[in-house]
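Action item from last week, closing it out:
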Amino acid sequence: MLNAGESVIVLGHQPEQLWPKGSFFAGRQSVLPQSISGNLVSYCNIPLLRRWSLKRRYLYEFKQLFKKHGPPKCIVSYNLPAHSIYIGLYAQRHLNVPWIPIVADVPDNKAELIMHNQALHEATGRVFLSWGAWKNCTDVLKLHLDGGVEKVRDHSIASCGLPPIILFSGAMNKWAGVELLLQAFSQIVRRDVKLWLCGKGATNAVLKAIDADKRITYFGCVSDEKLEELTNQSTIMVNPRDTSLPENHINFPSKVLEYLSYCKPVISTWTDGLSPEYRDILVIAENPNPDGIAAKIEEVLVWDQSKLSDYSQRVVVFLAAGKTWEIQSQRFIHFLNDIHPTQRA
């Protein structure tokens, strides 16, 4: 948005565990980087009062920003936590400022889900990362915008690595599918193939599987620079989300776009969060179990240089045509202008 000529002011808070594990008054020492304009709120971080405190502190800070900068063109919230709903509806009802939540996830709790759906319906407009969630929304003013890439890497590096390296980066939990991937990798007979894992939250079962196979290296949580280095060395990237989990069908696997920006083969299971256009770009494991994922890995491992280059070129065209942040930010601005034409973005 900044590169598109828009000014962005951030209002947020630093999450902490509830007191006594976290601070009694949280966020007092929290500050935004100098490159980001806005404020972080402090709040009472004790059970039963935290939600109320966040609402009140957000409202106070929002009013202060309003006095300083004037009315915003819109308020954008990431998901719909209670304090964002509170500020969004206040801005709509009292200031005629459009509120647009970006929906990445939905609550598991039934009461919170009801509140989420009601607030989403009351919002001025709504943006969905998930194709399935966008498709199922009955409100008219909606936009599907799954994300973007900062840059498309030099696709000439998409060549057959020796030894072949499979990369997974992300949370080490059942939703991301790391256990599914480990089961699939155990079926890969070739001993020269490596599996690199990056991310936090590895369970004992995951650590046990890693220890049992010397071909697997677990790097833990790494810096952006280190992840880029490892990804540049990889041959294949895998998004093995478990399709049997309902939660995986209502969000978008954001790692897919980051993977694709390297213009190397990306093997993925298929969930409803992916829009149909990805079927022509991702290497889909139609059989989303360890056998099916293993079969797709072995299939891609024997691609020759000509097939790898052809794949890379198709990815470049796909990303450049609609998945750069420059394009996606303009789509959002046009959406806002259509919603609230009297306050042009």
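Closing note: The two ends are 10 Å apart (CA to CA).
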